[in-house]
Amino acid sequence: MNVFVHSLSILTFLGWLILFPVHAHTSMIIEWERLETAGKDKKADAEPVPGKNWTDSLTGIRFIWIPGGCYDMGSPPWKEGREHDEGPVHEVCVGDFWLGQNEITQGQWQAIMRINPSFFLKGDAYPLEQVSWIDADVISTSLNERFKGKARFRLPTEAEWEYVCREGGDSIDFAGRADLSQLAWMGENSLQTTHPVKTRKPNRFGMLDMSGNVWEWTQDNYRPDAYAHHKKDNPTVMDEGFFKVIRGGGWKDASGALRCVNRGFERYTSKRADLGFRLAAVVDMEEEGKRPPIFGIPF
Asked: What does the DSSP assignment read for 176-231?
């Protein structure tokens, strides 16, 4: 009796495959491939070696090595378009670090997180948006587990972000030296939507989309008078405030919001269709024998 039932079950299953061969095969394989790709811990195709650029093969995130240095952060009172929270101008120094070449894309996010929260679901090459400051910390934690002893991931500080946008602190308004329409997707040319990353011109560090496309979370809490209290080496503001600094402007903004020195802010739990992030990384000091960067790690 049991053999008969078992044989009948096999025949029923084979009959189902005959009736629906393509659908059954396709759905099973696609689901398996998606989970396997997202869940498998692949080895990076290049190790995060200090002084060198590298790419994580699991996510495809390209990290650019940024040599540290000192610069005058903020904008002077006479600068056109200046906001009150952009001063006073003050010298700061940042240590060496890596910074993601572009804003985290939907494809890069899904390589680890699987679910895509973006409003503009237009493809893997489009910037991730509708993610909170907390969400950025989640993906950082995942990468920290994979690269422990080599690199430590987080959001860039305000000082680091502006340093890179201004190509090491030069007196430039936007993230590059080409015409702004060639550097950024903004209200004037975006058609009110995001665009694929790496479709505008880079700055001299090789960074893309630091002006426009989507705003970017930074590590710092927002304080309008933060610059009056910054320390010189690796300044950052980390307190119990609810608002975090965002930088770079987005697809629906006028040019003034895209300036390297412009400071926006948003509640750390907020999710917007014009707000994403890029990741920074520093040498993981837990690795035995590592020499610390010149100015330490701003945590």
From this structure: SSS-HHHH---TTTS-SS---TT-S---TT---SSSSSSEEEEEEEP-TTGGGT--
Q: Are 124 and 107 in contact (CB under 8 A)?
A: yes
Q: What's the alpha-carbon Rg for the chain, to the nearest Å?
A: 23
The token duo for 132 is 């909170």
- Answer for the pair 94, 77: CB distance below 8 angstroms, yes or no: no
54 SS3 class: strand
Q: Indicate the domain borders of the chain.
A: 1-40, 44-283
Element at 244 (helix H, strand E): strand 243-247
Beta-bridged to residue 54, according to DSSP, are 63
- From its phi and psi, is residue 211 left (phi > 0), alpha (psi between -120 and 50) or beta? beta
The residue to which tokens 């495809």 are assigned = 60
Q: In what order do the strands lie in the sheet with 264-267?
A: 264-267, 243-247, 215-221, 275-276
The per-residue pLDDT for range 37-79, each reduced to its tens digit, is 333 444 445 789 999 999 998 999 999 999 999 999 999 999 9
- Name the DSSP letter for residue 150: T
Q: What is the CATH code for 44-283? A: 3.90.1580.10
Question: How many Å apart are CA 95 and CA 70, to the nearest integer?
Answer: 9
**The dihedral formed by the CA atoms of 200, 204, 210 and 211, expressed in degrees to the nearest 10:** -70
Report pLDDT digits (tens) over 110-147: 999 989 999 999 999 999 999 999 999 999 999 999 99
3-class DSSP assignment, residue 142: helix
pTM of the model: 0.81
Instruction: Using the CB atoms, write b or e for 268-291: b if 16+ within 10 Å.
Output: bebbbbbbbbbbbbbbbeeeeeee
- All residues at 6 or more sequence positions from 235 whose CB lies less than 8 Å from its CB, including other chains: 73, 92, 157, 158, 159, 298
Angle between helices 21-39 and 2-19 (to 10 degrees): 90
